[in-house]
TrEMBL record:
PANTHER family (UniProt xref): D-THREO-ALDOSE 1-DEHYDROGENASE, NADP-DEPENDENT OXIDOREDUCTASE DOMAIN-CONTAINING PROTEIN
Name of the molecule in the record: Aldo/keto reductase
SUPFAM superfamilies for the chain: NAD(P)-linked oxidoreductase
Annotated NADP-dependent oxidoreductase domain residues: 53-302
Pfam families given in the database record: Aldo_ket_red (PF00248)
Domain of life: Bacteria
Length: 311
């Protein structure tokens, strides 16, 4: 057995033990039972189910070609897939991330395990087509699971192309994205006017504006929701590092702040999947543990929000 094969097997064992331990530890406070694989949510436009935890590739996958840079990312993807996850989200604006993700999925023979989401981020029909074809080449796939219009840039032009591509089978789903609440009014207008499969937006315990209009609208319109920045862009998680977990964290099976923050987001019934970015397998394992077992109900989410407001 090669060293690389040994490390992969060791990682798979650690993933299984970590997730299994979480299920066992949480079972005492979860009388309704706990699964050792990720919860799934329905994509309203198709009925297909998606695991609730994925991975974002902004910054984290923008690396070179050396084994030292790429091996942790491969192990991160292995951790995601071992837990039953599938969503890998990227964009042409993320530097080398599309190429790195495509290379790793091909090397792992894992294209069938991944739900590949990327974006078009340019102006003009022909330039948009050129960019999307380039993304397919970099991701080493003939069909993208989800193509999104990044930050609503030239969305009317690209939406027409995406509808045609969906009809042709080049993409499976289409959607729009943004990362800041200042764009929510524009996103709301598009969501009301157009038929979309997905919307991707920012949402976290310290940034709950999406709860007011966009999440209820997504549920009303049958649009799946991908949450970016569930850790508040990283700042929220860093701010809590030295803060002890509140007693109620154990009631929802959490033993880390990452799990608490992700479970708050996943507790909203309109959310389909959260995609925290990471380049570390241990963080991916921790993130996945948030997607199993008990998720907070409305009362617990109020408790969590009240705790944040009074901290």
């Amino acid at each position: 057995m090669s060293r690389a094969e040994f490390l992969r097997l060791a990682m798979a064992g650690a993933i299984g033990l970590g997730i299994g331990a979480s299920a066992r530890d949480g079972n005492a406070s979860a009388p309704q039972g706990i699964s050792t694989r990720l919860h799934t949510r329905v994509i309203p436009s198709s009925g297909e189910r998606l695991p609730v935890i994925g991975v974002g590739t902004w910054q984290t996958f923008d690396v070179g070609a050396s084994p030292a840079e790429r091996q942790p990312l491969r192990a991160t993807l292995e951790a995601l897939f071992a837990a039953g996850g599938s969503v890998v989200d990227s964009s042409p604006m993320y530097g080398r991330s599309e190429a790195v993700a495509g290379d790793l999925l091909a090397e792992m023979g894992a294209r069938d395990k991944a739900f590949i989401a990327t974006k078009v981020w340019t102006r003009g029909r022909e330039e948009g087509i050129r960019q999307m074809r380039r993304s397919m080449d970099l991701l080493r796939t003939e069909r993208i699971d989800l193509m999104q219009i990044h930050n609503l840039l030239d969305w009317r032009t690209h939406l027409a192309t995406l509808r045609a591509w969906k009809e042709e089978g080049r993409i499976r789903y289409l959607g729009i994205t943004h990362y800041t609440a200042s764009a929510f009014a524009d996103m709301e207008a598009v969501m009301r006017a157009e038929q979309l499969d997905f919307v991707q937006l920012n949402y976290s315990l310290d940034d709950r504006e999406a709860e007011a209009r966009l999440l209820p609208l997504a549920a009303e319109r049958g649009i799946a929701v991908i949450v970016n920045q569930p850790f508040g862009g990283g700042g929220l998680l860093r701010s809590l590092v030295r803060t002890p977990l509140p007693p109620w964290a154990g009631e929802i099976g959490c033993d880390s702040w990452a799990q608490v923050l992700l479970k708050y987001v996943l507790g909203h019934p309109a959310v389909t999947v959260a995609i925290p970015g990471t380049a570390q397998p241990r963080h991916m394992i921790d993130n996945c543990r948030a997607g199993i077992g008990v998720l907070p109900d409305a009362a617990m989410r109020r408790t969590m929000a009240a705790w944040w407001a009074q901290r």
